[in-house]
## 1
Amino acid sequence: MKAVFAQVMPYIDYIQKALVNYNGRITNLGTQIMWGAVLFSALLLAVLHLVKRKKPSVSGTNTFSLTKKADRLSKIGDYLNAGKLYERSGNLQPAADAYYKAGTVYYAAQLYKRLGMKDKQASALEQTGFHKEAGELYRELSMYKQAGENLLQTGELLKAANMLETTGEIGKAADTYMAAGFNLRAGELYTKLDDKAKIASAYEASIIIPKGDTIPRAITNYAMRAIPAYIAIGNMQKAAETAEKAGLGKYAAELYSKLENWAKASDLYLSINDKKSAADVMEKAGWNDRASIMRASYYEDSGMKREAIQAYEKMGRLDDAARLYSSIGEKMKAAELYAKAGKHVISASLFKEIGYIDKALSILESAGEADKQSGEAQVLKLDLLMEKGMYKDAGLLVEQILSGKALSESNLQLYYKLANIYEEEGRAKDAVGIYNKIIRIDPAYSDVNERMDRLKRISQTPSPSPSVIDQYAQTVLLSDTGGGILSKRYKLVQELGRGGMGIVIKAQDIVLGRVVAIKIMSTGGASDPKRIDAFIREARTSASLNHPNIVTVYDVGEDKGAFFIVMEFVEGMVLKKFLEDYPAGMPVQLSIFVVVQMLKGLAYAHEKGIIHRDIKPSNIMWTPKRVAKLMDFGLAKALEEIKHGETIVGGTPLYMSPEQILGEKTDARTDIYSFGCTLYELLTGKPPFTQGDIGYHHVHTTPEPMNKINKEIPQWLSDIGIKCLEKLPENRYQSVEQLFNGIQKGYKGMK
């Protein structure tokens, strides 16, 4: 009866649950009908089960008999039949055990299940190959080791690994995690076991690089666990490969360097732009040329341009060295190296930029025929000839370049230059003709309209009368009967200016086809040949100077009571005139820009042993291209000797040094004093002393600091000015180089 009750109980439970759900809460008619059907079905199933299970009862005597018979069969090893008899007699556990021993394990498992003996059921299922069911039963029984081993058999690796880890089977669990693809967890377990080889493998397997440029930080962490493990087991190759895979370029390069895989190491260093380390590796590999190039490139990228220049020069890469010299402002050195490197056009362009026109022309002439005939070279040569005032040659060249082509948009610039040349040669009509054609194509081209207006005004202005040009200038330049020396070679264009020393005239050199400036100075009636020779010697000494910041002297001489100096014609104005726009002083930056150029010219002259003795704003030309040019070197002294017949050191009182005023010996420091006066005027709008006895003040009075007059002047620059104006030469800067370095240092600090 007990057994029957056990069979019917599930149906009773089902009915009970149905009743509980009903609980008087169902009001919908359809739902009530449905639940009625459910209750009826449950009762019917219970009855049918009782009928099905009802068998002829086995009497107690038969049960005992069957059991005894089963016992005997079990003793003789007939476990299968014993099991059947045990089952018929209702002795399910002995029946299950007998079936188990007979090898019919599956039947045993079913009986163990009916008996609720899960451990024996799991064991039986395991033996029959039902590992999944066995594993789940073992897990319910907290028999995790057996559960893990059975789940492992079914391929449920993650569950198996969890079971094995729970039982402390760390090694086996880690292997299973690896097999399941859970490499990170495997790596953590291998770390507990300190199994370096497997640690390395697990963490390396965890490195999966996603698409995109950024590598997640986690990937780096995995790599940093795998790499030391590989190193620990001596597998440096795998360590390097793992670092490379994880994007650890520098670390990978270092490891490949240890493996002496120089190619890989240098490539990796370059991939992270570590040119210095790449160069080191290349040197170790014996690739000296590549190493030198790389090191030079590193210096350049790091802003160490001097070191880069030395490296490039050492390996013969002169064009790279020249490029860097140019970038740091050393255009002269750059131009020289470009010439050596065969880059003649670039070299000539730089020489032109720094004012070395003759050198630029010489470089162009030394170029190969192909370079010389290139359009770029020809236009450059044209500009150089125009800079030198050699308009005749420039005109021939531009006509050659144009080759008779009509004026068009493609050659506007060349025709514009040709018109400029005609204008300089006094061929105003020809110039106007070209300018008119240019305006038809481009009405706003360059300064054509301004030039046209100027030429129109000049054409309407009457020629200068003899009263405008001094008698001595007329004698020299215009006298046909007098046989003037200059009149045989130069054609008067116009007067440029006049002053206490004479008159300056713009003229055309008929022989060389260039425009020049001629300064004509009265001798004051002096006729002593010795004095005249002394003047010419002094002037010719100045003519030896060839520097972009010095006006070049072409010729000197004396004729009919007047001295003349033929010099480079410089477009622009004297600095004194330019200063009129700045009555309170020029801006500091602009002043520094001007005086640095002055110092470059002075330094060059002093190296040649030539002292100017009359540095002042009116002896400095300022060009439209913002170039400062010193002029009249030594002329003050020479003219005073001519006029007075004695050696007195000339100069202009506002800018004269104490030793000049006292008639003492002068040297380079004299120019430094006059430079100080000029610097003072540039920054404040006036020289240091302008009232009272100027000479006395220069010898005895300390000038007011410049930064007290103009608050914009930095202290360091004011101090430099005061040091230049020291009364005793030994207290001033002792050379232009010292002075230049002081300004350079202060300016760098100001940036």
## 2
Amino acid sequence: MHYAKVSPEEIHIRVVATNRGPDAATLHLLPTLWFRNTWAWGPQTDEWGNPVDVPRPEVSLAAAPAGAQWAVRAEHATLGTYQLAGRDAAKPLFTDNDSNAQRLWGLPSASPYVKDAFHRRVVNGETEAVNPAQCGTKFAAWHVADVAPGASTTLSMTLSRAALAAPFAQHDVVLARREAEATAFYEALQPGASADDARILRQALAGMIWSKQFFHYDVARWQDGDQLPPPDGRRNGRNHNWRHMKAADVISMPDKWEYPWFAAWDLAFHCAALALVDVDFAKAQIELLLRENYLHPNGQVPAYEWAFGDVNPPVLAMAALKVFRAERVQRGQGDIRFLERVSQKMLMNFTWWLNRKDADGLNVFEGGFLGLDNISVYDRSHALPPGYSLKQADSTGWMAMFAINMTVMSLELAAAGRDCEDVAIQCYEQFMAIANSIAGHNLTGLTLWDERDQFFKDLVVGPDGVGRHIDVFSWVGLIPLFAVEVIDQRLLGKVPRFAATLVRHYRGTVDGRKVTHCPIQTNERGEHLLSLLGPSRLKAVLQRVLDENQFLSPYGVRSVSRVHAEQRDLGSLPGIGQAMIEYVPGESNSGLFGGNSNWRGPIWMPTNYVLVQSIEKFFRYYGQRLTVTAPVLGDRQITLGEAGALISERLVNIFRRGPNGRIPAFAATAPFQADPHWKDLLLFNEYFHGDTGLGLGAMHQTGWTGLVANLVERKYRRDIPAFWRQQQASEPAPAAVPA
């Protein structure tokens, strides 16, 4: 399928169908144009509740213009009139886009011509199934072609608002020109990229663009019904507390085939990838989730279609900052008004998290499910017995990141002249409170940091207030690394009270106790580091990450450490009972939380991407001064920049051809390995085998796996963007890095 636009209202289409079989074959091709059925919904009202007439649209046969064999006119009360014309001979078929009620429910159909008519006409030979008047709300051009083995047949069409007199006069030129422009566009994104990397970047971003889809869900209408009353259980069923939710928008989907609905934390990662090619759409997607018809009045962001009230990681602020910075690099300045609008709504969501997910008010969070499916030893979407609670290292780490994101957003706004210093101080104080609690200095004295293993772990707390770490090495303990930002002098120029707040927390202290990296120490460029981890803890955690016997796979960072291939038995945990954890590098072997995805070993692109991004932020601050032990390199000391690049390269290697000529993401026998017609095409799976890199889960989830394009782009970024070059100072580097 080839689509090329002359303008938003004139699209040229080419369909190429090839017979890959050994014998000649007759192909039946039916390109179809139809109107979405809204006329069957019953009485409609406008936003004020006034009745609205919904006239039935129509597709009807029209005179074929010059160079065309057929044409139809599509007329709609609000969309206007369009023309679809075809260059190749075809038999026009018409019906209505109404359900076959007789066949489905034994009831009279609204129209004698229903939506399964084309199948009945072509396959069953039922000539009476289609409308002889050659009009309706659904149309197909029935092409029949005898195609030899290895040969192809081509169809050409144009769809336009204006009735073109010669729709194919420039058809081939338009298609060739747009293809050449697309090639030039992607080559300009990555000059000098290898053929493998250029293909990965282009197909990942093309998949992101292709995954946009219209999504419609009016919760109140779904609960109330339209033509027929809904089942009684629907009134108090899923999403019943989200009656304000009215979605009718084009949204970036995780997978248009397997997961054709939005998911909030997926969408945040989509925006990071989309910002490479369409920063305006990326901004609009973030704002969409924060609009009043999406965001709950209490401040919760809707999670996903099947349960808006579920809790996903709070990554939207991170995405907003990422998109803001991407635009600043691309256009020389960021969209401050966008950041201002988003920050106001994100404060509502931030407050929701503080009030709803910190049950004891101690700045240790219980996010529950958090989108990581079976990563825990029990189903976190369910409550523990009365008196018991799970203090989640990942939820608390996400919230520390959220607090830093909000701090930096407020500082950006203050630097642009907005009155946001108070908000920056409040959000940073919240970050410090979280850091204080993680360190065990709240009223409980319980810390999420396990000093023995030098790792963050979940904590089960019983009715007696006694806590026990869950001895699992997983993303749960890596996510606190995500709470990191570098603050340059530009951001501190108009916020003297915020700067004083940093001084008050000199050496990273709260009430005299060290809980984070020192916020007032600067690097050679005068930059400050806001982070949960100081150098010693950062080194300890990354040593595990860079160990192939633990987290590091040949293809990225595993979601659960490989040590759990042997260390499975966790003993009896308070409130949970006998527990175990397995290293399962492939598909899930457990039905926990549906069992449809697995966070107990496979490689997931979104968390890997944020980890790489976080390591790069640490490197931006520390530079060559801080090195970490890399067991994968024989315990050699490497810089944080080298550590980030090592992980990034392994992630991209999932899609590169290895020394054996194979792409790890595909099975050895897959046509994508060697078949000449398929070998240059990629699929972007939901997640990947922790040992082999084989693609698993949803097969077409470019979605967050499209972040591989960002990793490729980072590899070939030769220069620091002009904006940041202007910010750099030339002060001498400090002599040493304190612990």
## 3
Amino acid sequence: MKKEKQFYRKVLLTILLHKKLYVGLWIFFCLLLVFLQILFALVFQNLIDAITAMKLDDLQIQIIYTCMVISGMCVCKYLRQILYAKYQKEIFQYMKALLMKAIFNKQIAIFHEVPDSTYLTYLSSCMTEIQTKFFDSLQAMLYDILLFLGAVFGIFYLNMMMGCVILLMTLMNICVPFLTRKKIMTRTEKSLHMNTIFLSYMKNIIKGADTVKFYGMEEAIHTQFSDMNKKQETCKYQLQTVLCLSDMIIFLLNYVTVCVPWFIGAYFVLHGVFHLGTLMGISQLNNNVASPLQDFFTRSSLWQSGLKVMKEVLHTIDLPMIDHTNKIDDVRSITLQSVFYSSQHHKILQDINLTFKAGKKYLLIGESGSGKSSILKMLLRYDAPDKGSIKINGEYEVSQITNVYENMHIITQDNFLFEATLLQNLTLYQTDIQEDEVITIMKKVGLSHLIKRLHDQIIEDEIHFSGGEKQRIAIARALLHPSKVLLVDEACSSLDGIMGHQIESLLLTLDVAILIEVAHHVYPDLLPCYDEIIWMKKGEIYKQDSYESLCKDKEFCNFLNLKEA
């Protein structure tokens, strides 16, 4: 818990002080605005004194000073608000970038534990809540404190005794309502509890409506309902009486806070302790004593609500991420050692021992549910084994390698297209890939007819491409973004026989360190191109050998509908 609090405090401070210059300037203009408000009270004091003394020259000077101070306050207020708006812009850009980086920095398995809608909520409505509840409340609370301290200082400067009176009245205005707070909380809890009981009772009765009618229970039920209804409404009434009392006390104290200083001040004026102008100046500052404190306590609950949302978002940043300690420059081998994996108590992989070596091509075959695709998911860290290890180059656990996706790509049956142009979907926003190169690859994978649509915008809700076209777009991506390890999961499942054969042939000629392919439908003439074929059954490796050896196996040939060699 202590470590978690330290983390939140550290990240919060990092975010809040991301733009220290803006924070410093904002505080400066807040202080300047508070100072000008004190100065306004002093000028106002002199203005009233000039009026009561019937001094026209002094009155003209004080009017000029008053206009100057008001102008200064307007400029300060505007600059303070502009600075805060600029600060918010920079902070939310930074925070959303930090969150986005954290989201995509997570391990794939952990990333998919959170629904996509949650990430969207964090980046949209949560950000709005953080802005309105956390940041807006925080800056308003800070200004309230400065305003209160400045007003108290100004009043004490004008008259010590009046300062003590106003401070006492303000504290009373804040503390007295707390006397009813405990009773309000108790009666609120009682009312909520009664509501829960009433709803539970009604739910039970409505569900049993048929029984009530069949057995003529209406009168008994109406009696029970009347009793429950009376109890519920009585609890609500008791709560309202306490709230009315609390409102009346607050209403009375607001007037007491204003009137008592005026009564005492008037007494001092009549006895020559100070002039009427001083009383008017104190009255002006008194407006900035009680109100900011009341606003502060009101906003503090809103700020706490915003802080909860902020912590929820920060928790996303704090979820386990990729360990940035190991990087690989090449892939010499991938080893699965004694790997076991289950999902929802269903055994998917059992004691898998495999080694994929550089310079070789592998084909995984087997019936649906035999665990072929699960092996690919393990390599990509979508899932983690329950037991066993998966190591790259016999040294690093695949889960601990930072740049695993720089070295390993996959072509699947389900290929996502961004709402962007076809060109951007093929280049994946990499500007160093030339359009001529893209066109060449498109011709290779049978997308020549889409070249004229290269700059067309793709919209999610509109059907732009067939399943086969999407599959070929995914294959074109793999060709444009070569990797050391290429995983292929039913890449040609949506293609016709001729195109499928053409694509399979193309994949087998790619310059990759390791090719691992999962397929249901195989092309017999291409099987010799694989260095090793791995036949899986019920989550286990059933047979594993070269095509030259397996083609002599009758069971293998029957499974793939091949003629036995």
